[in-house]
Amino acid sequence: MKRIFQHPPAPKTGKHYWRSLEEFADTPEFRAKLEREFPQGAAELEGGEVTRRGFMQFMGASVALAGLGLTGCRRPELHIVPYTKGVEWQVPGNALHYATSMPRRGGAVPLIATTYNGRPTKLEGNPNVPGFNGATDVHGQSAILDLYDPDRSKTVLKAKERGKDYTDSTLDAFWEEFAILKRDYLKKGGEGLAILTEPGTSPTRARLRAEVQKKFPKLVWAEYDAWASQGAPVVHDFAKADIIVALDCDFLGATDGTVQSIAGFAAGRRRLGKTQETMSRLYAIEGRFSLTGGMADHRLRVPSSAIAGVAALLASKLASGGGNSFAAFSDAAVDTWITEMAKDLASAKGRSLIVCGSQQPATVHALVAQINESLGNVGVTVKPAESRPTAAAASTLGELAEQISQGTVKTLLILGGNPAFDAPAELGFDDVLGQVEQVIRLGLYVDETSATSTTHVPAAHFLESWGDSLAYDGTYLCQQPLILPLYNGVSEIQLLAELAGLAPAKGAEYVQETFRSAASATAAQFQHAVMDNNTMRVQELARQIEAVENAQSPENADSTWHSFVHDGFSTKKPSLVSLAINIGTGAQASPPPPAKPLAAGEYELNFILGSVDDGRYANNGWLQELPDPISKLTWDNALYISPKTAKTLGVEIKNVNNNVADVPNTDMAPRTTDNSPLSYFAVDPMTAFPMVEITTPDDRKLEVPVIIAPGQHDQTLTLAVGYGRTAPRLTEATQFKNQVTAPLRVAEGAGVNAYELRTSSTPGFVSGVKVRKLDKTYPLAITQEHNSMEGRGLVREAPLDKYHEDPTFVQEIGIDTHTPHGDDKGYQHYESAYVNPPLNSKDYQPDRPAWGMVIDLNTCVGCSACVVACQAENNIPIVGKFQVLRGREMHWIRNDRYFATDNPPQVSNEPVDPSYLDDPQMLIQPMACQQCEAAPCEPVCPVNATITNEEGLNVMAYNRCIGTRYCANNCPYKVRRFNFFNYNDRPIQNVQLPVLGLTNELYLGPLAGKDGPLTKKGSPDSIALQKNPNVSVRIRGVMEKCTYCVQRIEEAKIAQLRKSNENGMGSGDIVLPTDGFKVACQQVCPAEAIVFGNMNDPNSKIVPAKADERNYGVLAYLGTRPRTSYLGRVRNPNPTMPGAANIGHTSVFHGPEKLVAPEGGEKHADGGHASANGLNLEKLIG
Amino acid sequence: MANIFPKATNVVLMKASVALTIVGMIAPLAIWYYFTPKYSRVGYQPTQPVAFQHDLHVGQLGLDCRYCHSYVEVSGHSNVPNTQTCMNCHTQVAKDNPKLKPVRDSWATGVPIAWVKIHNVPDYAYFNHSAHVNRGVSCVSCHGKVNEMTVVWQHESQSMGWCLQCHRNPENAVRPIAAAKPGEQSPIFNLDWEPPKGQRQAEIGKKLVKDWKINPPKDCAGCHR
């Protein structure tokens, strides 16, 4: 019997798929249809009892209709959803850029944010603000991830049981409570009310503080910053200095480094390029190996506690310091060193700069200021004190703690910061906080401080709120929101304004008010200046007033404000004093006494900042995974000790056979929430590092893993603060309910908390600590630990005199001594085994751009901002600690760090005498895909997923890649990264799942989807908002690598194509403007060490860079013809300094006359091989 | 001994292998043809939430493509219009027409209309409209005669091979951007444009390619980023 199918009526909207039996059953038409086709099945369905036969027919029908038939072969229905009302300025697919600024310790950093469709995706520096080189640093780059952090606090929390149990509340309820609080305290004049916040440079906040203090005269205003400078704030101009002396000051690294200090220093180094004039010289006196020490021409190892003595010694040599109270340092070698340095300084009066580490005691700061003054640096390299704004006084944390214990504080508002975590250990601040009746905490995360609070209010991120700030040199910067607060956060200014009883702002009213009031304040000062007969001041102020008045005329009353927001900074500097800004030093309760020098055999513990700063970025995955530039450590902090100390303590890194059982006590393996170690994941013995216990003189203990750090002083132990954070588990709050993972998923389990040892009298270092080796190990994830140059001259350097003598010294290093020299393109043209069709074909058009990059090793300090910028721009995922342990980190660009010792290590298998490692030099080389013209990775791809295009780019087609990994195997630079797992779609931490139990979701395959049968999807939605829409997000099984930001290249080309049709008639004007765009790493570099451009464009900056005599390609002799090349490093040693002969001479040139011969070692007969060997840690084993 | 197997078994193996071979030859051919974008995508004509008719608005009324697809010259995406664009006219024209109810509802509630996407290039390939439209490629080259479509359907396969055909020989598709006479519509957006009498597309195209230095990317980086 023929069955006549009656199709259902056409669906109203698009194709229909029968998804589930329920829907299927619910539609009366379809049930009717069913009846016609399968009468038995239908009857059985309605009847209720389904026989097996009927069930099979039923299922068969549904399968046939549900989509395994031809109708199901169609792709799923996709939608385009436009706006209803268009948003002004927004063009889908095009970015909008807004200027803002990031408030930072010691001054804000100007930013330009790139936004797509109303959400910011990338932060860059603002090139129009002088002094920053348009750059940012690692924290500026990763701030965007903090904005989208899924662990951010999203709701108001009210304590049910303080510290343990909190419930959700609403913002409205909070404001009501706040209004009551205000009313009560208004009556009392603010007695019992205290505010604890961080020092800042915001004029608006200062103004609001003044308002609040007017309303509440008895209010206590305290400020605390864990890493605030112990001395008075100073503004340096590194660019003008010919000689820089860093006294325990890591002004190039994370600890004391800023964008402007790196930019200024690089300017001084870059002078080398212009003529053969000399470049700046850097002396570093420090206890541990920092990036500053790596860039230094001369480095002296001295424990931090002895810096005071060294400064005194220097002062006495310069005959400048009078009446210093420290015993001058008594050590003959140090004496000679300082004497010669002092002579050098004396010969460069007014052109030198002494900088002091921020955590050195205030007395040392004062002494250094004195020395600078005596050397005539004030006004040149050190800005005079008058140009710095005066700080409004604030209570210190110690004073606040005292008041709390006296019971005079009933309500405490904590705005930002995390005092329960980073307060000095002796205060016991989280207990102190527990004594306050009412603690209202405004915070970005629910953190340790929130656990002591009675109410937690989610804070608005700086990218979500209006504000303003001053840069380090007083430039007035605007801060505008890029997106509405994602989680209804409240900004500090809002809260203060509410407290002051001002009308609630819809937008920028408070900031506008500050902006406008600055003008009137200037007028008042003008009057004063006139009356004081201060002509210079009168003129200066008159100029300011005139500028502001012109701009504020009725016609363009608002234009000044608009240009302020548009530009991000004010070119018309309002008088700093009129802004009454507040740069508190956050000095500790009692200024630390001068440290006594260490006795022999005593140790000091040195605190430094790592990539997570003082702990505030501990939940930022990019920063946790960013390898420390020197130790290459990720995801943890560790105690750095010198090789001799390691030997003394009996601490060794065992190179056991790959037998997991040999590793003693994997107790410290990262734990799950139920506290059982993850034996699931075998700990590679090579990554198991020994542990020690530190005990400070005031009996605080800490267990910490150890890394052997060459170049560190034997009595110095270094530990980064900010790690070891544990977020409280607040069970009732819906944000954390049912959460089996930690509330701060990234920060949890990462490192140890060094703040437990840090007290207010020992902010920078603790003298006299004891160390005891423990019988435990801890896995540390270190990237790329084994570097070996093997004579190939990967990093090349020479001292300045050698450079003057032979500018092409790079061509005589390493294996290049045996090969022909390069042609005028700057990179060696060797006969290559790999012929490159696009570049060699007859169709090649020479007027196509030819992209190239040059990285100047002389200015690259190793700050690693490029690593994070690349990660932000190219949607590079983080992989988590265990994957880094397996070497699977995904950074496209990495900084290779090489140690260079004077004498080559032994070649036999005997252990190396650690004294070789006492005083190495350090070189850093950023390494990304070299975009070889004759790339070895291309011919080995079985599916031709990677090719070289006509512009010289080594292009990667992700969808073609099948994951053979042969290309990575063949790459001599090891710059290709493979997605071993779906890092973008799976969380990196462990979760408890049904069926599978405790597992790391990375291991779950494609069936794990949002509606998958076994698991749930991993990656949080807010992280997806950060992704750059112009770059593919790669899936598991795909190879990726640096692309020279091909999306930016193509964007520039397309923009030019659009421009070519501006007249509406089409044209051939497709030549790209010279240096019209920057690639991400180039843009972010504070030192401007990376130059990128079109080598076919004669006006581009890349052309002289490639033609520079110092230019060389890494492993160029292989014939890869890399498009990325490097400029050899030049050191500027002072010939009269001890040990100067071996500085920069880590490579043996033709004729090793100047080199100190190694004892008993061989001299190479032909003298042409580099002995700049990397440090092979395996040789360190006892 | 009795025969264990029936006689038919003698030829079963041969028949099976012949059949398998034939199937094995036809199946790939079928897949090759039926699974290619040229067959599976061309003709895709989903039902849209609003029964918008291009032939009416563009063909009869003469709206320029860019009135609605406004960012096609400045952005990679050629956008579908906001509800506001529709309501520009439809607050007055056909303002009670039941076919426009979804539009009016969207305008009133602020919930946007979810148009069904017809032309879908995969996420890992980045196509930029402005790069094509500003260089002489008309809408019709990739979308067909939309001005004659009542309900829009996919006219071209838009597979990578199809893209490369044109990228390798752009003279077959580029047109002058400026209209022949002032006041006329640009040939790019005039989907009915034909080469003027006496000229052929190939010669017009060749001249434009030379004058404008048209050199479309033929390497992966052009689209795969």
Ordered list of secondary-structure elements with their pairings:
The complex is a heterodimer of chains A (1182) and B (225).
Chain A: H1 21-26, H2 28-37, H3 39-47, H4 52-68, E1 79-80, E2 95-102, E3 109-116, E4 119-125, H5 138-147, E5 156-161, E6 165-169, H6 171-188, E7 193-197, H7 203-215, E8 220-223, E9 243-247, H8 259-274, E10 281-286, H9 291-295, E11 298-301, H10 307-317, H11 332-346, E12 352-356, H12 362-374, H13 397-406, E13 411-415, H14 419-422, H15 429-435, E14 438-443, E15 455-458, E16 467-470, E17 476-479, H16 492-499, H17 509-532, H18 535-551, H19 559-567, H20 576-579, E18 603-609, H21 621-625, E19 633-634, E20 639-641, H22 643-649, E21 688-695, E22 701-708, E23 716-721, E24 765-779, E25 781-782, E26 797-799, H23 800-805, H24 837-840, E27 851-856, H25 865-873, H26 881-885, E28 894-900, E29 921-927, E30 946-948, E31 954-956, H27 966-970, E32 977-978, E33 990-993, E34 997-1000, H28 1021-1026, E35 1039-1040, H29 1046-1060, H30 1080-1084, E36 1090-1094, H31 1102-1107, E37 1111-1112, E38 1124-1127, E39 1129-1131
Parallel strand pairs in A: 7-8, 7-13, 9-10, 9-12, 10-11, 13-14, 14-15, 18-23, 20-22, 26-39, 27-38
Antiparallel strand pairs in A: 2-3, 3-4, 5-6, 5-15, 16-17, 18-24, 19-25, 21-22, 21-24, 27-36, 28-29, 30-31, 32-35, 33-34, 37-38
Chain B: H1 9-34, H2 37-40, H3 54-60, H4 65-68, H5 83-90, H6 101-109, E1 115-116, H7 129-133, H8 139-143, H9 160-168, H10 201-211
Helix pairs in contact in B: 5-6
